[in-house]
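Hey,
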Amino acid sequence: MVLRTLAMPADTNANGDIFGGWLMSQMDIGGAIMAKEIAQGRVVTVRVDGMTFLRPVAVGDVVCCYARCVKRGNTSVTINIEVWVKKVSQNRLASATRRRKRCLSTLPLIIRENHVLCQRNKKVPGLPGT
Protein backbone atom coordinates (compact mmCIF):
# COMPACT_ATOMS: atom_id res chain seq x y z
CA MET A 1 0.00 0.00 0.00
CA VAL A 2 1.47 3.32 -1.07
CA LEU A 3 -1.41 5.61 -0.10
CA ARG A 4 -4.49 5.54 2.11
CA THR A 5 -7.00 8.37 2.44
CA LEU A 6 -10.64 9.13 3.17
CA ALA A 7 -13.09 10.15 0.42
CA MET A 8 -14.65 13.46 1.48
CA PRO A 9 -17.80 15.39 0.40
CA ALA A 10 -15.67 18.05 -1.32
CA ASP A 11 -14.50 15.39 -3.79
CA THR A 12 -17.93 14.47 -5.20
CA ASN A 13 -19.32 14.92 -8.70
CA ALA A 14 -22.84 16.08 -9.64
CA ASN A 15 -24.23 12.59 -8.88
CA GLY A 16 -22.83 12.52 -5.36
CA ASP A 17 -20.16 9.90 -6.16
CA ILE A 18 -16.47 10.61 -5.72
CA PHE A 19 -15.17 12.42 -8.81
CA GLY A 20 -13.05 10.19 -11.08
CA GLY A 21 -10.42 12.90 -11.44
CA TRP A 22 -9.86 12.85 -7.69
CA LEU A 23 -9.30 9.08 -7.82
CA MET A 24 -6.88 9.51 -10.72
CA SER A 25 -4.98 12.08 -8.68
CA GLN A 26 -4.69 9.69 -5.72
CA MET A 27 -3.38 6.98 -8.05
CA ASP A 28 -0.86 9.38 -9.56
CA ILE A 29 0.38 10.33 -6.09
CA GLY A 30 0.64 6.66 -5.07
CA GLY A 31 2.53 5.72 -8.24
CA ALA A 32 4.85 8.69 -7.81
CA ILE A 33 5.64 7.65 -4.23
CA MET A 34 6.77 4.22 -5.42
CA ALA A 35 8.69 5.61 -8.41
CA LYS A 36 10.41 8.19 -6.21
CA GLU A 37 11.53 5.45 -3.81
CA ILE A 38 12.92 3.44 -6.72
CA ALA A 39 14.63 6.41 -8.38
CA GLN A 40 15.63 8.09 -5.14
CA GLY A 41 14.99 11.35 -6.96
CA ARG A 42 12.50 13.37 -8.96
CA VAL A 43 9.93 11.63 -11.19
CA VAL A 44 6.98 12.72 -13.33
CA THR A 45 4.07 10.85 -14.91
CA VAL A 46 4.26 10.77 -18.71
CA ARG A 47 1.67 8.24 -19.65
CA VAL A 48 -1.22 6.27 -18.26
CA ASP A 49 -1.70 3.22 -20.45
CA GLY A 50 -5.24 2.53 -19.36
CA MET A 51 -7.72 3.05 -16.60
CA THR A 52 -10.85 1.13 -15.72
CA PHE A 53 -13.46 2.34 -13.24
CA LEU A 54 -15.13 -0.77 -11.83
CA ARG A 55 -17.52 0.72 -9.23
CA PRO A 56 -18.30 4.16 -7.81
CA VAL A 57 -16.64 5.37 -4.62
CA ALA A 58 -18.81 6.98 -1.94
CA VAL A 59 -18.16 9.70 0.62
CA GLY A 60 -16.66 8.14 3.74
CA ASP A 61 -15.01 5.23 1.93
CA VAL A 62 -11.37 4.54 2.81
CA VAL A 63 -9.41 4.64 -0.46
CA CYS A 64 -6.25 2.49 -0.58
CA CYS A 65 -3.78 2.64 -3.48
CA TYR A 66 -1.55 -0.37 -4.07
CA ALA A 67 1.38 -0.14 -6.48
CA ARG A 68 3.74 -2.69 -7.99
CA CYS A 69 6.71 -1.96 -10.21
CA VAL A 70 6.30 -4.15 -13.31
CA LYS A 71 9.20 -2.81 -15.40
CA ARG A 72 12.38 -0.89 -14.70
CA GLY A 73 14.34 0.73 -17.47
CA ASN A 74 17.27 3.14 -17.55
CA THR A 75 15.04 6.20 -17.83
CA SER A 76 11.60 5.07 -16.68
CA VAL A 77 9.65 2.70 -14.50
CA THR A 78 6.25 1.19 -15.23
CA ILE A 79 4.00 0.84 -12.22
CA ASN A 80 0.73 -1.09 -11.92
CA ILE A 81 -1.64 0.73 -9.57
CA GLU A 82 -4.88 -0.56 -8.09
CA VAL A 83 -7.37 1.22 -5.87
CA TRP A 84 -9.27 -0.78 -3.29
CA VAL A 85 -12.01 0.81 -1.22
CA LYS A 86 -12.97 -0.17 2.27
CA LYS A 87 -16.53 0.69 3.19
CA VAL A 88 -16.40 1.45 6.88
CA SER A 89 -19.57 0.92 8.88
CA GLN A 90 -20.41 0.94 12.56
CA ASN A 91 -21.65 -2.60 11.95
CA ARG A 92 -18.53 -4.75 11.51
CA LEU A 93 -20.42 -7.26 9.36
CA ALA A 94 -21.33 -4.49 6.91
CA SER A 95 -17.69 -3.42 6.38
CA ALA A 96 -16.23 -4.65 3.09
CA THR A 97 -13.23 -4.10 0.84
CA ARG A 98 -13.59 -4.07 -2.97
CA ARG A 99 -11.44 -3.12 -5.92
CA ARG A 100 -12.61 0.07 -7.61
CA LYS A 101 -10.04 0.98 -10.22
CA ARG A 102 -6.83 -0.10 -11.88
CA CYS A 103 -4.31 1.44 -14.22
CA LEU A 104 -0.79 1.12 -15.57
CA SER A 105 1.43 4.21 -15.46
CA THR A 106 4.87 4.92 -16.87
CA LEU A 107 6.94 7.44 -14.96
CA PRO A 108 10.22 8.64 -16.47
CA LEU A 109 13.09 9.21 -14.11
CA ILE A 110 14.57 12.69 -14.18
CA ILE A 111 18.28 12.47 -14.91
CA ARG A 112 20.53 14.96 -13.14
CA GLU A 113 24.07 15.70 -14.31
CA ASN A 114 23.93 12.81 -16.79
CA HIS A 115 23.60 10.22 -14.03
CA VAL A 116 20.78 7.70 -14.31
CA LEU A 117 18.90 7.60 -11.03
CA CYS A 118 17.49 4.09 -11.44
CA GLN A 119 19.46 0.98 -12.23
CA ARG A 120 17.81 -2.12 -13.57
CA ASN A 121 18.63 -4.38 -10.59
CA LYS A 122 18.68 -1.75 -7.87
CA LYS A 123 17.34 -2.98 -4.54
CA VAL A 124 15.02 -0.59 -2.73
CA PRO A 125 14.67 -1.41 0.96
CA GLY A 126 11.14 -2.06 2.14
CA LEU A 127 9.54 -2.45 -1.30
CA PRO A 128 7.85 -5.74 -2.16
CA GLY A 129 9.53 -7.62 -4.99
CA THR A 130 12.91 -5.92 -4.58
